[in-house]
Design brief:
Layout lengths: L1 E2 L31 E4 L3 E5 H4 L5 E4 L5 E10 L4 E6 L21 E6 L7 E12 L9 E4 L11 E3 L5 E9 L9 E5 H14 L5 E2 L2 E5 L2 H7 L8 E6 L4 H5 L6 E5 L2 E2 L3 H9 L6 E8 L2 E8 L1 E2 L24 E5 L2 H7 L9 E6 L4 H4 L7 E5 L2 E2 L3 H13 L4 E8 L2 E8 L4
Antiparallel strand pairs: 1-11, 2-3, 3-6, 4-5, 5-6, 7-8, 7-10, 8-9, 9-12, 10-11, 11-12, 13-20, 14-15, 15-16, 16-17, 16-18, 18-19, 21-22, 22-23, 23-24, 23-25, 25-26
Amino acid sequence: DFQFPPGSPFEEFFKRFQMPDGGAEREYQGVGSGFIIDPEGWVVTNNHVVDGADEISITLQDGIQYPATLHGRDPKTDLALLKVETDTALPFVTFGDSDSARVGEQVVAIGNPFGLGGSVSTGIISARGRNINSGPYDDYLQVDAPINRGNSGGPLFNLRGEVIGINTAIFSPSGGNVGIGFAIPSGLAQAVLDDLRTDGQVDRGWLGVQIQPVTGEIAESLGLPGDTRGALVAEVLADSPAERAGLETGDVIVGFGKTPIGEVRDLTRAVADTDADSEVPVKVWRQGEQREVTVAIGRMPGEEKLADAGSQAADEDADVQLGLALAPLNEQTRSRFRVADDVASGALVVNVQPDGPAAREGLRPGDVIVMVGQAKVSGPDDVAKEVKQAAGKERKSVLLLVDRDGSQRFVAVPLANA
């Protein structure tokens, strides 16, 4: 399990708990790590270390304590910036270039494990660019320097004494150190911290699409050349920069500005790092060819917008090589399968052959097929037509955009005769 403790494994460590017998509330103290980045008293730590805290204090290595205030935090990257008010210039550390750090390079982790006070451990960088599904901007350095409970928020140094990471998480089935720790790279942290220092919040660019990875099967079904990958647009949000620029569901984004897009997080990071109102050329693969559109990037809403979608419907119609029975959407099928009214058109899946290609890819009755390949469909006949065209081009699979309970996702289904 990945653990994100406030200096220990307990996410609620700073919160007040009710006594089991209904008695008075007790206050708990938590400990974590951090480091000073400016002589005026700016302190960096993890958001989960201070989340829910009523009071925060900073204890330096020499034992001197200072009260601190939370100046800003960013849960999406698990970073927080604290401020200590003091007339004395404080000792501080500087950031290094995490992008130049290499696998195998020696590193030093400093922190407050188990509340013991300043402790140092050494190791190497085991991997870069780790995604541990903690947030949309995962790009961790993996290290084998022992990182334990209480190290969260502490600095990870290179041998030049520069901070190249912020120790954040451990992988530990047992709860103790097993040599797999994760640090937020300084390259990601610095931009976030600069924003927090300016106005206490992080302003990110916003494109307004729901995206998913391009698997080998999806790439083949779309006819993407060579080993081209990218980010597949599963949905374009209404009244978003993407919609205004003409991006479409089914587009594969392969380039954003000067950044090639090989996977989903490449796009997520590139968009987030772009200033609002910037105009950016976006390269997409659409209908068998590469095109370019210009997008005026917006500012990410304070709360993520959710696309309105619908659900499902049923009756019987065609089989179309996929192991599916399809039906048109009408009043009866919508009622029978409880399809939401905002699913405007598509072909309803009413039956799935248990051992067929569609079943193996997870389709089930009640799903609504709204696109085949990059073409919208309004009923079973359209699905049959597009599938036959894909088979005629000797595709091994066909790409379906499936709406299920209001969420849309692309699925590459092998053709039965492939």
